[in-house]
Amino acid sequence: MIPDITSPLPTLATFFIAGGVFLLLTGINILKVEKFSIAPGKRTIITGSLLTLVGISFLMGDIFLRQQQIVIIPNTLTPMTAATTPAPPTSTFTPFIPQEPPTSTPAIVLPTLTVTSSFTPAPTNTPSPTFTIPAYSPELAIRDYYSLINARNYAQAWTWLSERFRNGVDYEKGYVGFWNTIESVSIDQTALIEISPTKAKILVEMTYYKKNGQIVKDRDFQVEFIWDPIRLLWLIDHTET
């Protein structure tokens, strides 16, 4: 008999995964919570990711324990079969055991495969690793960012800036205050300067239409990005003209 062990791991896994997903949605500003002091941002996203990973590890641990419990079943049954056949004439099979090994031993000597040597030049033909630009490029990211600006969705656009960029700008006075003087922004042309798996840099030609009627063209606006692997998004990290 195998005792029925109820593991608390599924309950813990559900609790941690639910909490982690809740914090992730709150961190990327998809889910807004007013009753709790949970602010969207990088810390909330990291905390949610850790909770989700802990929950998944609990779930995998429960699956592993259940597999171990199943493996025990054939081992417990083997003594039963041995007990049910206590008196077979086993002595009749013993004379044939010493006769079979000598006939099988000469056949085992042959399998010395030297074919492995033919595969040694294969690593020399491996191509050098290359980086392909993701479908969501920095040039698309800059257009989506200024679409949020033109829609006056400053709170959402603020989350498209890196933590380093946001630390150098006051949100109300510097960020919202500046964009309130702009009627709209148009992206006239973009060009990719450099890109890697974690960073990118583009050149943007754009036009500012101010509320006072002025039209300002910027033909040499450079934008640097960093890749956010959690949100799968290019974040603006630095700009210069």
Q: What does this protein look like?
A:
This protein is an alpha+beta fold and 241 residues long. The chain contains 7 helices and 4 strands; from the N terminus they run H-H-H-H-H-H-H-E-E-E-E. It has a 4-stranded antiparallel sheet with strand order 1-2-3-4. The longest helix has 43 residues, at 42-84.
List the helices and strands and how they pair.
Layout: H1 9-27, H2 42-84, H3 100-108, H4 138-150, H5 154-158, H6 163-167, H7 171-179, E1 182-195, E2 199-210, E3 215-228, E4 233-240
Antiparallel strand pairs: 1-2, 2-3, 3-4
Helix pairs in contact: 1-2
Q: Structural class, from secondary structure content?
A: alpha+beta
Order of helices and strands: HHHHHHHEEEE
Overall mean pLDDT score? Answer: 77
Q: Report the uncertain regions.
A: 73-83, 91-96, 105-110, 115-119
Number of E strands: 4
The helical percent reads 40-55%
- What is the end-to-end distance? 77 Å
Shape, per Cα inertia axes = elongated
Strand order of the largest sheet: 1-2-3-4
Radius of gyration: 33 Å
Number of helices: 7
Hey, roughly how much beta strand do the residues contain? 15-25%
Largest sheet: 4 strands, antiparallel
